[in-house]
Amino acid sequence: MITLLGGFALLIAGALFFSSCEGPAGTNGTNGSDGSDGTDGTDGIDGKDGADGSATCILCHSDDQNILTKTRQYDNSAHAMGHTSGYTNRSFGPSYNCAACHTSQGYLENLVGASNVPYANVTQPNCYTCHKIHDTYTEADWALQQEGTLEPNTGSPGMDLGAGNQCVGCHQFATLYLENEALWANFDDGGNTSVEITAGEKRAGVHHAPQYNLFAGMDLFEFTGSSAYPSDSHVAGKTEDGCVTCHMNDGFGDLTGHSMSMTWEFHGSDNYNWPASCLDCHTSGGDNDIDAKFEEVKAGTDALLEQLYTILVDAGIMYPADTPGNAYLMMPGTFTTNLTAAHVNYNAIREDKSHGFHNAGYITAILDNTIESLTPAK
Fold first, then answer.
1. In angstroms, what CA-CA distances link 206 with 99, 139, 305, 344, 352?
2. Residue 140 CB: number of other CB atoms within 10 A?
3. Residue 191 belongs to what domain range?
4. Could you read off the pLDDT of 242-292 as tens digits, one per residue?
5. Dihedral angle at the C-alpha atoms of 297, 347, 308, 226, nearest 10 degrees?
6. Which residue, among 366, 360, 377, 359, has the nearest Cα to 343 in the 3D structure?
7. How many angstroms separate the CA atoms of 10 and 141, rounded?
8. Which of 79, 139, 170, 270 could form a disulfide with 263 if both were Cys (CB 3.0 to 4.6 A apart)?
9. How many domains does the chain have?
10. How far is CA 354 from CA 196, 236, 348, in A?
11. Main-chain phi, psi angles of 66, to 5 degrees
12. What is the dihedral of CA 11, 14, 18, 20, to 10 degrees?
């Protein structure tokens, strides 16, 4: 009890001690006066509405079904089906860059003189190969990647095929197959010069799809003979856009147009989809009917090709058509340069696949004079 009272007394004493140390209270300060309100600012000008984010897209991706139509057509083409991509990333150096024509990536890089084979996720030719898709997101993206005249690999003067210029980068002679000029340098000398063909030279001559050269009437071996070589091509003169005029004429369903096919099937028969530039003169059912004219040229060309085929096989310079892996290639042996040049002519016309129609006058004269040069005088 005494201890508790003592502690209480100490607390009271401490409180008195601290109270005695507090200074005098200060006076109340005076409030400062409020500042005047600032002048209201001028209202800003209303901004313009931003552009519709889909406005550029619908320039192409509209409801007119054009993209759908062209896509479905292209899906039926040999390019889209993968027939061209068998050698997808195959390359043996600058001279043997298969990808430049067999793939989309290789084609586009080749246009600017580049090559980065092999390509990852490589694809066969597609919309981006021919058109400048999604460069500007406007209708300008339908422009073609190759618009100007392209000089042939052979060094001959180029022919301007308009929109068809897009095609000729690949559809022409591949010069790597013609680089051994000694094999035919002395053709048309009456068969007096001979050369030796080795097994490694069996592919000497023309590669696939040389349509540009035949369409323009150039670069085949022009033997001297009784048939005159025409100075111009009737078909080329009637097709402002070359290949595109006929092979991409207005489509019929999924079968023509961007399928690049000249025919469409109906009720079990093929029907030709000729452009107006042909039908203006070759009216259907008339004396100059275009279907009949094609069949006439086809029959004549095929007969001459068959005649030349027999000569070349009998001479032992060409593997027969039924030879697995070597069909139509050169056989090893010693042959005249007339035979080697004739072999090039034969395969160029066979690989053109138009049955002579791309340039009937020129192709007929080539076959006539080639056969004549190889046929002994009687």
1. 18, 38, 16, 6, 10
2. 10
3. 147-239+275-374
4. 999 999 998 777 888 999 998 888 888 888 899 998 998 898 888 889 999
5. 70
6. 366
7. 97
8. 270
9. 1
10. 32, 14, 11
11. -60, -45
12. 110
